[in-house]
Amino acid sequence: MAAAGRARRGAGLSAAALLALPALALLALPALPVLPPGRGGGGEAQPGFSPPPGFSPPLLLPPGLREELRQRRRDLRRLEAAAGGGEAAGAAGLGCGDLSRATAVSVLGWGFTKVVARAVLAGGGSVALKSVHGAGREVRRCVQRYGAPAGCRRLAAYKLLKEVTLLRRLQHPGIVKLYGQCYDNSGDAELRVTAMLELGSPLEMIQLLQTPWEERFKICLSLVKLLFYLAHSPLGSIALLDFQPRQFVMVDGNLKVTDMDDASTEELSCKEDNDCTLDFPTKSFPLKCSVVGKCEGINEKKNLFNAYRYFFTYLLPHSAPPALRPLLSDILNATGDLRYGINETLRAFEKVLHLYKSGLYLQKRPLLLKDYISLKGFRTVEGEGHKCWPSYSHLGCLLSIHSAEEAAAICNSQLHCQSFIVTQHRTWTGRPLASFQSSWTDLIPDTNAVVYIKRSASSGGRL
Ligand SMILES: Nc1ncnc2c1ncn2[C@@H]1O[C@H](COP(=O)(O)OP(=O)(O)O)[C@@H](O)[C@H]1O
Ligand SMILES: *[C@@H]1O[C@H](CO)[C@@H](O)[C@H](O)[C@H]1NC(C)=O
Ligand SMILES: *[C@@H]1O[C@H](CO)[C@@H](O)[C@H](O)[C@H]1NC(C)=O
Ligand SMILES: [Mg+2]
Predict the structure, then answer these.
(1) For the segment 334-357, what is each residue's pLDDT rounded down to a tens digit?
(2) Is the CB of 114 under 6 A from ligand 1?
(3) Is residue 313 within 6 Å of ligand 2 at its C-beta?
(4) Which domains, ranges and CATH numbers included, belong to the chain?
(5) pTM for this one?
(6) Which ligand 1 atom is nearest residue 202's CA?
(7) pLDDT per residue over 424-440, tens digit each?
(8) Rounded CA gap, 213 and 399, in Å?
């Protein structure tokens, strides 16, 4: 869509080159050799999903690194076995061929382990390409320790493979979609992995804080639904070990987790309750050791407390509808003390959503719409300079409402509001947006619209 249109073809780097590069070098685009397409025998997406043959680390590597590689490979094999390698049968994913034909590659972001670029496929769609960040902290640290760059990149490649395995098995609206992958094992020590994913945009917390409560609630609700899925996933209860806003992206206004290489499908083993303390910088929670020797619910609780401390505390409370505040405080208190599990948390969120959507939270209000004259077949001119916060439009005062009655109450509470119209636009909850204005003098005929004008505005000596 627009993103694809904006990317300048020709200015980009062949996607095949991504495979060949220790990532951040990407930023020095013009100097890079562009490899011929289809380099190496990586092949199209392999249904069995096992890494290509010849995948064992060369013997020349330092013993410590060799051992780490062996361990990662063992973990990966175990995960693949649990995830069921045959899952992909019939799934026509993207492969190396699609990657080599992709254009307009530009770096989107990076973390300690991976670098992510946007690319445009031959068919016109945009994807995110993830590969190992050769200059990232993870590889750099490993190189400092072992002095073996290729082996270290390979170690990082295992993390990406783990992520691909998880993404392949876990499908949920709150998890970024895997479109395919490409392996290039033609180098000696190195395995180059590129994952092709649904394209998102980084989560901007500061920007989110300025959006209407309804949008912030939506993000928290998506997160709760994701955590519910992870707690009961086909691979067992999964914890996101590195749980921070930067591990999430937004796709069409929906929150999705993208960084899964630090996910744990194992629950901590224990002998006694003392082995099961869940520690956070500000708080610790003593948990129980179950009869099977696992810390009960530790993954679910870890996720939930992280959701509380990184998301709920910032996004849920401020400018919430007053009648919903006690419920939201309960949610914050119960997740902050881990009194709720994910099931109760989801139930509490759905209750808030129900009250909000149905307008039940508005009960027992004085009726104020009678103070307004309604004019059918007219609307006011947009952008009358009346601003409010947080508005759906930065040009005027555009707010989500349950009914004209609620809009009247809002207009009454604003110093400069003289009129409002209920627009045809709806938010994700199905509520209409209303535009509040400081004047009503410029009326335009519009058969679908109704404008509501404060009686005091029309009779208060102004006419
Ligand atoms: N699907 C995506 N669409 C857009 N940007 C993404 C996508 N996935 C990741 N990113 C960006 O790339 C950064 C690094 O990706 P991530 O998977 O978190 O790597 P790392 O494991 O190194 O932290 C993220 O913080 C995010 O800003
Ligand atoms: C929850 O409420 C109790 C009782 O008011 C209070 O002591 C506790 O600190 C609150 N916890 C959180 C996380 O807000
Ligand atoms: C939570 O809900 C899931 C799915 O509905 C169910 O399988 C599980 O037993 C519930 N757990 C608790 C603790 O209620
Ligand atoms: Mg990350």
Answers:
(1) 999 999 999 999 999 999 999 999
(2) yes
(3) no
(4) 8-201 (3.30.200.20), 204-358 (1.10.510.10), 369-458 (3.50.4.10)
(5) 0.87
(6) 27
(7) 899 999 999 999 998 87
(8) 10
